Amino acid sequence: FQIGNAVTDNHYDNLGTVNFWWSHAMISDKTYRRLMSTCNFRLERESNQCESVYYYAMDQEFGNIDQYNIYAPKCRESAGGISSRRHMRMPHQPRSKLKGYDPCSEKYAEIYYNRADVQKSLHANISGRIPYKWTACSETLNRNWNDTESSILPIYKQLIDARVRIWLFSGDVDAVVPVTATRYSIARLKLETGISWYPWYVDSQVGGWTEVYKGMTFATVRGAGHEVPVFKPRAALQLLTSFLKGEPLPKS
């Protein structure tokens, strides 16, 4: 199976995310040092002091960016109070597009799924009494979801031992589940390297970088955000094609 920009391990995901923010100049040196000194990165719930630094970084230093692709344009339309925090485990104006990517697509989905006729056709909110709107990232769900694993690294080990073929890939400009987090988690597995790190290509351009381990392949996708096919469809197709053929990603 393939999995992209996935939450893997609470500790390494949190640590890797903060390091990504700093290495991509999203936060100041001072905030980075405060996060590293006040946060545990292993706890289900961090201290109030740690959370206050997180909120300061997001509210005062990030700016109005798309955290799922820090280099993509931001939707200019009213987002109905959508907060950047919620992405952290939290007549139309002209819109900028990035090679076919529409930064307002999430807004369209929220409008669509909150229509009464759409909810009726989906047999959702039948009573009409749910006191909150449908959103792409539900704070209600986040607050009440308490049965998730803190790490799936042990599951990866079991699957590797069972000879299940695993490909992990990361869009390298996602700041929510960034490439640094995934690399920290893979390093923890201590897998033997089969094919050393090299650039892979799509349409004669570098599509990203990859390394093949015993039981797992890891690949980055250059310039892609959290949902790789949305930002880099040709590269995503190459990932899928190589995986289905059982071949390494092309070197040229």
TrEMBL record:
Cellular component per GO, a single term: extracellular region
Entry's family note: Belongs to the peptidase S10 family.
GO biological process, any: proteolysis
Subcellular location: Secreted
GO molecular function: serine-type carboxypeptidase activity
Pfam families in alphabetical order: Peptidase_S10
Name of the protein in question: Uncharacterized protein
Domain of life: Eukaryota
SUPFAM superfamilies the UniProt entry points to: alpha/beta-Hydrolases
Keywords: Carboxypeptidase, Disulfide bond, Glycoprotein, Hydrolase, Protease, Signal
Species, as recorded: Genlisea aurea
InterPro entries: AB_hydrolase_fold, Peptidase_S10
